[in-house]
Amino acid sequence: MHPFFKAREPGQSTSKEKADKIDKDSKPTRKHIPWVEKYRPRTVDDVAHQDEVVSVLKKSLEGSDLPNLLFYGPPGTGKTSTILAASRSLFGHEMMKTRVLELNASDERGINVVREKVKNFAQHSASGTTPDGKPCPPFKIVILDEADSMTSAAQAALRRTMEKESKTTRFCLICNYVSRIIEPIASRCAKFRFKPLAEEILCNRLKDICDKENISYEEEALKALMYTSEGDLRKAITYLQSASRLKGEESISKQDIYEIAGVIDDGVIDNLIKVCRSNSYEKVEKEVKEVIFAGHSASQIIGQLHDKIVQLEDLGDKQKSVICEKLAVVDKCLMDGADEYIQLMALLSIMMKQMSL
Amino acid sequence: MCLLRELYGSGVEKLRIEQHNFTTPSNKKLEISTISSNYHIEVNPSDVGIQDRVVIQELIKTVAQVNQLDSSQRDFKVVILTEVDKLTKDAQHALRRTMEKYMATCRLILCCNSTSKVIPAIRSRCLGIRVAAPTVEEITQVLQNICKKEGLTLPVELARRIADKSQRNIRRAILMCEACRVQQYPFSADQEVSLPDWELFLRETANQIIQQQSPRRLLEVRGRIYELLTHLIPPDVIMRGLLQELISNCDGELKTEVVQSAAFFEHRLQLGQKAIFHIEAFIAKFMAIYKRFMEDNIADLF
Ligand SMILES: Nc1ncnc2c1ncn2[C@@H]1O[C@H](COP(=O)(O)OP(=O)(O)OP(=O)(O)O)[C@@H](O)[C@H]1O
Ligand SMILES: [Mg+2]
C-alpha cells in the first residue's frame, strides 16, 4: 500500500477512551494514535498561546471554583482540549464520568433534551468529597461543545436552567462563532476568545513533535506549515503527520506540505491572471474549466488570486477595489453553495474588464 | 473500494444493501439505503434532504459503538459518506466531535466534488486528497482498454472524440461509448458521437431564447425547463448548460454582463426552494439584456 494512506491507521481518541481501551485489551496499538490526539494538551498548563484563559482557569482551579464559561474562536485552537484538561484536573479521571456531562453537536440537543437531560444531570447536588473521602469541588460541569449549532430555542431553554442550577452546576459553552450564541446566554458567561496560534508557538510545537517522532524536516517546510495552517494547530499537525508518512525516513520539504495542504501551484494562478489580460472570454473559460477539472477548490483559488491581485503593480487602486469587491461577493456565494464554474467565470470576467481599462 | 480491499482483504466485496430506518425527534420516519460489508458502510446522507443530521448522528454512533468482531486485521471500521458537499451545515456540525471521539473504532472517508462547501472545522479534521479529473488522453486509454477486453476494436480517433465530449468524466465516456456501440458496429472513425438527449434538448431551448425575446417565448421556454426538471436534471446543471449555450451567441461586451446575472440567479437558486423561479428569472433577464443590446446595435446602424 502506498505509504501516504497509512496516515490514518488505527488509533484512539480522547484520553478517556484511550484509557478504557487500554484496560480492556492491552494491544499494542499505541504507535498508531493520530498525533493530534497524542499531543492533545493533558493539563491546562500545556495549552499554548491562550494565556488569558489559562491564567483565569488556573486561578479558579486553585480556588476550586469556576464561573460559567464561553469559549469561542476558530477551529483547532484548543477550546475542547482546554476544558477537558481543566475538568480532568478538577475531578481527576474517575470522577469525570459522574461529574462532567459532555454534549456536542453529534448528540440530539433540541429543547427537550436541554430540559430533561441537562436538568436531570444538574439537579442532584454534588458533594464536596470523592467517594473515597478526598475533597473535591462541590459542583458538576456541563460542557456544551459546538454550541453554535444549537437552535436559539434550545439556547433560550437553557437560560432558566443555567440560573436555577447555578449552585451545583457550571456550564461551559464552546463555539466557533460567538454571534450564534444568543445574548442572554452570552451575558451569563465569562467569555474567552481563543486566538489563532502565533507562528512562533506553532513553530515550537511542531519542532517539539518532530523531535519526539524523530522526523527530519527543512526549515522551509515549517514555514509552509505556518502559512497553510493559518493558526490552526490541528491542521498543522495533521499535515505534518501525513507528510511524514509520505516521506518515511526522508526529510520533509516545502513542496510536500504544499501538496498535502492543497495549495495551488503559483503557475496555475499566474496563468489565470494572464488569460484575463488576453481579454478573450473563450480563453478564460477554457482555463477555468481546466482548473476545476484538476480538482482545485474555488475557495482556494480565489484566496490565492486575492493575494496576487493585491500585489499587481499595473492595476490602479480603483480597479483593484472593484475586483476585490466582486471577490468578496463570490466568496459569500460559494459559501452558500453556489456553482463554482459560474461564480469563477463571473469573477474572472470582471477582472478581464477591469484589466482592459 | 481498492483502498478498502487493501485494508481488509476480499471480505469487503461481500456487499449487501440495507434499509435503515430512523425516527426524527419530531417522530417522522426516515428510510435510507446503505451499501455495506462487515468492515465498511457507504451512505449518501443527502438522500434524505434536510433531515440528514439525524442520519449522521445515529448511523455513525451505531457503527462506531459496535466494535469490529474479528479484530484480527484492523480495529476500526470505515464509514464512507458521499456527496458531503450537499450536507446541511447542521449535519456537518454533527460530524465534528463525533469524528474525534470515535476515532478508535471508526474512520470516515468523505467524498465531495469541492471543498468549498465543507465547513472549516471539518476540513481541519481531515486530510484532503485532491482527485483530479482524468485527462482526455487517459480517458482515451481507458476506453481502448475496455473495448479490448470486450473484444471490440475501437478506432483511436473515435475514442478521442468521445473523450473530448465526455467533460472529463469517465462514467460518461463509457456510457457514450456503449451508446456508439448500439448505434453502429463495427465502429467507424467518423461516426457521430451523440450527446445525451437532455443536452440536445437544452441546446435547443437556448436557441429558442436567442431567436426571440418575448413573454410568449418565455412561457414556452418555461415548459421546456419544467420538463428537464421533472426528468431530475439538477437545476445547477441546467443553469450551467444554459449559460454556456447562451454565451456562445453573445458578443464580448455582453458576455460579462450575462455571466454576472447568471452568477446572481444561481446563487439565489441555491438559497431558495423552487429552482424554476430562479432559472426563469435568469432567462427573462437574459432576454432583456440581449434585446436591449440588439436594439442598440440596430439603432447604431442607421
Ligand atoms: N493552544 C493549543 N495548545 C496545544 N495544542 C493545541 C492547541 N490548540 C490546538 N491544539 C492541538 O489541536 C488539537 C485540536 O484541538 P481542539 O480539539 O481543542 O480544537 P478546538 O478548538 O476544539 O477546535 P473545534 O472548534 O474545531 O472544535 C489538539 O489535539 C492539539 O493537539
Ligand atoms: Mg472542539
Number of DSSP strand runs of chain B? 5
- Category from helices, strands and their pairing of chain B: alpha/beta
So what's the oligomer here? heterodimer
Largest beta-sheet characterization of chain B: 5 strands, mixed
How large is the radius of gyration of chain A? 25 Å
Largest interface: A-B, 69 and 59 residues
Give the DSSP E fraction of chain B (strand runs of 2 or more residues): 5-15%
Distance between the termini of chain A: 54 Å
The hetero compounds bound to this protein are:
adenosine-5'-triphosphate, magnesium ion
Low-confidence stretches of chain B: none
The gyration radius over C-alpha positions of chain B equals 24 Å
Low-confidence stretches of chain A: 1-31
Provide the residue-averaged pLDDT of chain A.
Answer: 81
Major β-sheet profile of chain A: 5 strands, parallel
Subcellular location (chain B): Nucleus
Keywords (chain B): DNA replication, Nucleus
Family (chain B): Belongs to the activator 1 small subunits family.
GO cellular component, one term (chain B): DNA replication factor C complex
Q: Could you name the key traits of this structure?
A:
heterodimer, A: 357 residues, alpha/beta, five-stranded parallel sheet, 5 strands, 56% helix, B: 302 residues, 12 helices, globular, binds adenosine-5'-triphosphate, binds magnesium ion, P-loop_NTPase (chain A), nucleotide-binding (chain A), ATP hydrolysis activity (chain A), DNA clamp loader activity (chain A)
